[in-house]
């Protein structure tokens, strides 16, 4: 375990490393408890550096031998690395270290998962493999020899030679150590082939454990589509002879873009219709694309330091979102992204963990793989594209790839290519990178003499370490609708740059209804006191699919808030509007399914808190239940027809069209189950032939307080399948009523299949506990205590996953004094745990504030 001493690292302190690395040769002699890593590294003084301290990172390594230019030395060793005296000229560093992959439960560095060796080096895992300047601005070519008695031995780059029990790999592209990877095991390849636009033949392989062969075809097709898309849209070609993907069961994150050897959490790559839902397929396609796209945005051009993480992550998320929009439905993707941003990034940005897209300090970089860096980082790029236009965006990207190929870059480099290609001053835009918090844009309207005046104001609440906020450049896409629903002014992007600004639309025949923030053109909170009649009007007429959906969402939120605070009954504007949308068969089923969604209960809690009302999770839950019930009754005549959408005649395809139909059918089944007590859901479960149907019908049954037999049958059917068993755990906790959530979760922790050291299993159970808002926030604090117990238990085993899950407590200050006291007690208990990791220490102390 790591030293928990909190050292803060600052962006302003960046200095280049004193030495350049010309080449790295690594030899691995694999053994579960004593793998030997021999390194031979050519260093030379860096002419651009002033500090010549020769410090190499290294953690949990047993140094056997170190030599410089063949002469054995005794370096000074600490828990973080070693220091040695070196010549003021090029020299060769050699070291032999021993490591223990079998006991590496943190899943950083070289570790074992089901008998297979694999690595995870981002962000700072390479230092657990050997001594090295483990920082992204130190780039080198790597040659790797693996000696091991296993049939498949993989590393980065191209295979150069192999024999019985050994293999050699050469990666010709200079890379930082965080992109290093090694995999060794008994694996089966799903092969593929791709010819790049310039004619390079690339051998593709998706490697899985025996037994998982039936789940690799979809991932392979997604990879080929990604390779083609990046050529067509960004002109980016693949640059090696092979591209390998490996599925691993024990993995902290979704996947990793190691050069030529992507390593995936098996949940992010393995799929079959019988075991995966439509949502799983879509996610897998997006993650495969994301990791592949990193080959250019991340690998060929990498980050100078970890403060620049959004340079690769924001851009790559933006690119994978473009890909999904092209492969599937662009409006549906945009709505999903807005839902996710509001559910995950907004709470982060408006709470104690708030940090800029480019942070200025950190203690543990692993804690900064956040929704802010990734998703808000992508939104920032979307805004930049919106402001400069599509053509200028392409030109700037071409320049970026040309100019910075092979470099480790900064946000300044990124913005510079836009400034040069557009002539635009982006100094104010840069605040999106430096300023944390979600801007709130409020709207005031005026109408006189054919002129409609829109006054937009922006403000951002203080966030930790940032009291005063400056106005940002906010692209606000606006269209105007006339009284009959026609578009009287087409979408225009208003650039809000001041704290308050007025925009006029002249020559209008009648007072228009504005459609503001079309396409969710900026990641802001729009405060617009429009009437429900106006919302219903937009729901009926807006030609912007995002805002049409948003109008329904705002109606739903408004009615729910009134139900919670005024004991109002569900509003007719909402129910009638919904009914017309559901009846409209010209609308994409996936879009209609989205219309049936409600704001999450946690979002409602945030909305109440914003209004100065302390949220009561039970009251929120009751309102959501009541509205669901009222909706079911209101649209009941339509339900059989909508439900029949699920029954797609053609063979199962996880494409947008079929999955959209199933989404609508599933939403209809959920409402039907509220009226028939689950009869239809039981029928559907009995003849379900894909996981989407099986899981939907089972969840409807559980929600109706039924399904015990089906749950047991599901277990019997799928107990051999790890990924499906994750669903079995998650479903029971998510579907439990508020009073039984904690009890259900607690009982499941005793189940023999609760392999809590596996991050997927841990998250399936504990993540669902946190996601069940009313259940987690049970008044006696039992939910908080259960989570804290398990975080304390997991921390010494896997600090990274523990720390990420601590964020469950980030919203604690929204709730009443009693709940706050109960949560504080658990946070303190975690903080006071002897030997708590640096990861969790940082998270808990930031949350406590
Ligand atoms: N770079 C990967 C995600 C990743 C990040 C950190 C990790 O360990 C701390 C692992 C994976 C991606 O964006 O997909
Ligand atoms: Zn990424």
UniProtKB/TrEMBL annotation:
Q: Tell me where in this chain the Peptidase M1 membrane alanine aminopeptidase domain is found.
A: 218-432
Q: Which cofactor does it need?
A: Zn(2+)
> Per the record, what are the reactions this protein catalyses?
Release of an N-terminal amino acid, Xaa-|-Yaa- from a peptide, amide or arylamide. Xaa is preferably Ala, but may be most amino acids including Pro (slow action). When a terminal hydrophobic residue is followed by a prolyl residue, the two may be released as an intact Xaa-Pro dipeptide
Q: EC number(s) for this protein?
A: 3.4.11.2
Any keyword Calcium?
Answer: no
Please report the stretch or stretches of sequence annotated as the Peptidase M1 alanyl aminopeptidase Ig-like fold domain.
437-528
**Which family does the similarity line name?**
Belongs to the peptidase M1 family.
Domain named Aminopeptidase N-like N-terminal: which ranges? 106-179
| Record SUPFAM superfamilies | Leukotriene A4 hydrolase N-terminal domain, Metalloproteases ('zincins'), catalytic domain
Q: Which organism is it from?
A: Ruegeria conchae
Keywords linked to the UniProt accession: Aminopeptidase, Hydrolase, Metal-binding, Metalloprotease, Protease, Zinc
Q: Which GO terms describe its biological process?
A: proteolysis
* Cited InterPro entries: Aminopeptidase_N-like_N (IPR045357), Aminopeptidase_N-like_N_sf (IPR042097), PepN_Ig-like_sf (IPR038438), Peptidase_M1 (IPR001930), Peptidase_M1_dom (IPR014782), Peptidase_M1_pepN (IPR012779), Peptidase_M1_pepN_C (IPR024601), Peptidase_M1_pepN_C_sf (IPR037144)
Q: Transmembrane region positions? A: none
Q: Which domain of life is it from?
A: Bacteria
Q: What class of enzyme is it?
A: hydrolase
Record protein name field? Aminopeptidase N
Stretches assigned to the Peptidase M1 alanyl aminopeptidase C-terminal domain:
533-848
Q: Name one GO molecular function term.
A: alanyl aminopeptidase activity
The record's section on Gene3D superfamilies has: 2.60.40.1840, 3.30.2010.30, Neutral Protease Domain 2, Peptidase M1, alanyl aminopeptidase, C-terminal domain, tricorn interacting facor f3 domain
């Amino acid at each position: 375990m790591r030293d928990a001493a909190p050292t803060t690292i600052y962006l302003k302190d960046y200095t280049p490393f004193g030495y350049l690395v010309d080449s790295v040769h690594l030899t691995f002699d694999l053994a579960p408890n004593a793998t030997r890593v021999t390194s031979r590294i050519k260093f030379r003084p860096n002419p651009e550096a002033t500090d010549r301290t020769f410090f190499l990172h290294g953690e949990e390594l047993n140094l056997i031998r170190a030599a410089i230019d063949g002469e054995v030395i005794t370096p000074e060793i600490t828990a973080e690395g070693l220091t040695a005296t070196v010549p003021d000229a090029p020299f060769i560093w050699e070291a032999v270290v021993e490591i223990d992959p079998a006991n590496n439960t943190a899943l950083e560095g070289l570790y074992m998962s089901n008998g297979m060796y694999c690595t995870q080096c981002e962000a700072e895992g390479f230092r657990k493999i050997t001594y090295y300047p483990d920082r992204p601005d130190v780039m080198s070519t790597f040659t790797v020899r693996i000696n091991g008695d296993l049939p498949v031995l993989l590393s980065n780059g191209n295979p150069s030679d192999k024999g019985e029990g050994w293999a050699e790999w050469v990666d010709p592209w200079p890379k930082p150590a965080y992109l290093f990877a090694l995999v060794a095991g008994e694996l089966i390849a799903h092969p593929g082939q791709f010819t790049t636009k310039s004619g390079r033949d690339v051998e593709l392989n998706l490697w899985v454990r025996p037994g998982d062969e039936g789940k690799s075809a979809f991932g392979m097709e997604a990879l080929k589509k990604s390779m083609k898309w990046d050529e067509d849209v960004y002109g980016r070609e693949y640059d090696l002879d092979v591209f390998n993907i490996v599925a691993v069961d024990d993995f902290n994150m979704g996947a990793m873009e190691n050069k030529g050897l992507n390593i995936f959490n098996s949940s992010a790559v393995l799929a079959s219709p019988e075991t995966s839902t439509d949502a799983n397929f879509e996610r897998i396609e997006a993650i495969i694309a994301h990791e592949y796209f990193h080959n250019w945005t991340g690998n060929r051009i990498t980050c100078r330091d970890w403060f620049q993480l959004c340079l690769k992550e924001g851009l790559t998320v933006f690119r994978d979102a473009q890909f999904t929009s092209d492969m599937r439905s662009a409006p549906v993707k945009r709505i999903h992204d807005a839902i996710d941003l509001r559910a995950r990034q907004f709470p982060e940005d408006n709470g104690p963990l708030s940090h800029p897209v480019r942070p200025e300090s950190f203690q543990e970089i692993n804690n900064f793989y956040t929704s802010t860096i990734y998703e808000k980082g992508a939104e920032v790029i979307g805004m930049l594209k919106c402001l400069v236009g599509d053509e200028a965006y392409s030109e700037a990207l071409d320049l970026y790839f040309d100019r910075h190929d092979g470099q480790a870059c900064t946000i300044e480099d990124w913005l510079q290519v836009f400034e040069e290609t557009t002539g635009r001053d982006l100094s104010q835009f840069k605040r999106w990178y430096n300023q944390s918090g979600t801007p709130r844009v409020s709207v005031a309207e005026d109408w006189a003499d054919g002129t409609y005046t829109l006054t937009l104001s922006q403000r951002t609440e203080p966030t930790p370490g940032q009291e005063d906020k400056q106005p940002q450049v906010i692209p606000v896409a606006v269209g105007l609708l006339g009284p009959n629903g026609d578009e009287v002014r087409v979408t225009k992007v208003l650039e809000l740059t001041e704290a308050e600004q007025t925009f006029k639309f002249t020559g209008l025949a009648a007072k228009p209804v504005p459609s503001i923030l079309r396409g969710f053109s900026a990641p802001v909170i729009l405060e617009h006191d429009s009437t429900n009649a106006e919302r219903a009007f937009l729901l009926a007429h807006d030609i912007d699919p995002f805002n049409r959906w948003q109008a329904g969402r705002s109606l739903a939120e408004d009615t729910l808030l009134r139900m919670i605070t005024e004991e109002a009954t569900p509003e007719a504007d909402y129910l009638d509007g919904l009914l017309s949308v559901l009846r409209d068969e010209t609308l994409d089923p996936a879009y209609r399914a989205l219309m049936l969604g409600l704001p999450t209960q946690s979002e409602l809690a945030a909305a109440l808190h914003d209004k100065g009302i302390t949220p009561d999770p039970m009251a929120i839950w009751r309102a959501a239940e009541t509205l669901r019930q009222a909706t079911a009754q209101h649209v009941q005549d339509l339900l059989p027809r909508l439900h029949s959408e699920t029954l797609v005649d053609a063979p199962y395809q996880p494409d947008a069209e079929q999955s959209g139909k199933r989404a609508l059918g599933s939403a209809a089944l959920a409402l039907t189950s509220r009226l028939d007590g689950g009869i239809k859901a039981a029928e559907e479960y009995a003849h379900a032939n894909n996981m989407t149907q099986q899981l939907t019908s089972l969840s409807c049954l559980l929600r109706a307080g039924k399904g015990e037999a089906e749950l047991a049958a599901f277990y019997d059917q799928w107990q051999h399948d790890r990924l499906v068993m994750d669903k079995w755990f998650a479903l029971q906790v998510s579907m439990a009523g508020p009073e039984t959530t904690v009890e259900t979760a607690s009982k499941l922790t005793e189940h023999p299949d609760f392999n809590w050291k596996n991050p997927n299993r841990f998250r399936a159970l504990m993540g669902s506990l946190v996601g069940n808002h009313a259940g987690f926030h049970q008044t006696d604090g039992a939910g908080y205590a259960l989570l804290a117990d398990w975080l304390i238990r997991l921390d010494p085993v896997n600090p990274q996953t523990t720390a990420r899950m601590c964020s469950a407590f980030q919203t604690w200050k929204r709730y009443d004094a009693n709940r706050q006291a109960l949560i504080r007690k658990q946070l303190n208990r975690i903080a006071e745990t002897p030997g708590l990791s640096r990861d969790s220490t940082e998270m808990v102390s930031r949350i406590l504030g």
